[in-house]
Structure formats: C-alpha cells, structure tokens
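Please check the following.

. . .
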Amino acid sequence: MPLASIIVPAFNVADTLPETLASLINQTAQGYEIIIVNDGSSDDTLRVAHTYEAQGNIRILSQANRGLAGARNTGIAAARGEFIGFCDADDIWEPSKLQVHLDHLAAN
C-alpha cells in the first residue's frame, strides 16, 4: 500500500501534463502513487497519460466530464495511500515537495 496518493485531475491538458507528471515522477519521496483522472478530455490527454503508465506507480482513470471536484472525488475514491495530495495538471512540484509534507505529517 502506498504511503501517499497524488491525484491529478486532467481535462484537455495534453500540452501541460508531461511536465507535471515529470515533476511528480521525480519526487525524492518513496512509496507513493499518482492517479490521473481523465475527466472527459477531447484532446490527446489520455494518450499522453498512457505514455507514462509504464512508470509503475501511475494509474489512469477515465470518466465523462464531471468537473474539477468530480475528478478529485473519483481520485479520492480510488486512492490507496494513507495521505492524499492534489496536483493540478498544469502545476509543477519541486522534487522534495512530497517528502517535506510527509515529514511534517509524521512529526505532527
């Protein structure tokens, strides 16, 4: 079971998703999963997401468009981690971001 689940709602973000996923894949923390929720995209978002699937810690879910909250809720329902984090598909995380949060949660 992963320690953390990072949920990435994705709607028509084929252009920004690669950089976002690269930043999540390159986290210094260990034992986390990335859940991409394709929220009814009409561009190449799903194809781009599948190119990262072989990383091993990435799961891809697809649904009809339900909006940001609906995509996040789908990700939460599928999450296996003790902790849940959200990363929008046009955001970039610093390499130690997840580890800093996990350390803080463990200490408090």
